[in-house]
Design brief:
Elements lengths: L1 E4 L2 E4 L5 E6 L9 E6 L6 E6 L5 E3 L7 E6 L4 E6 L8 E7 L4 E2 L3 E6 L1
């Protein structure tokens, strides 16, 4: 089970941090990812962190977002900086190994 939190209404240029708490999976052994879905658009890849802490980012967030993980707390986080209105979306955490999606958390960036 994955539970995301930390979304809300932020201003352009803001820096919120999302967190996703995992349960029922071997968290430390698995890669974790973040995706997002804006209204009327397909779900978009945001970032991934491997079990070895290697990170990868989608082109639209590269240089602004940072994914991290805390294996002691079974948590993956997404630090978002320099937010733009086009970052408005529901953000989902995802476990590729178990094909599990969290419920998502809404991030709305006001211009």
């Amino acid at each position: 089970q994955l539970q995301a939190s930390g979304g809300g209404l932020v201003q352009t240029g803001g820096s919120p941090k999302l967190s996703c708490a995992a349960s029922g999976i071997r968290f430390s052994d698995n890669a974790m990812s973040w995706y997002r879905q804006a209204p009327g658009k397909q779900r978009e890849y945001v970032a991934r962190i491997s079990s070895a802490y290697r990170t990868d980012y989608g082109d639209s967030v590269k240089g602004r977002f940072t994914i991290s993980r805390d294996n002691a707390r079974d948590t993956v986080s997404l630090q978002m900086n320099s937010l733009k209105p086009e970052d408005t979306a529901v953000y989902y955490c995802y476990s590729p190994f178990t094909n599990s999606w969290g419920a998502g958390t809404q991030v709305t960036v006001s211009s």
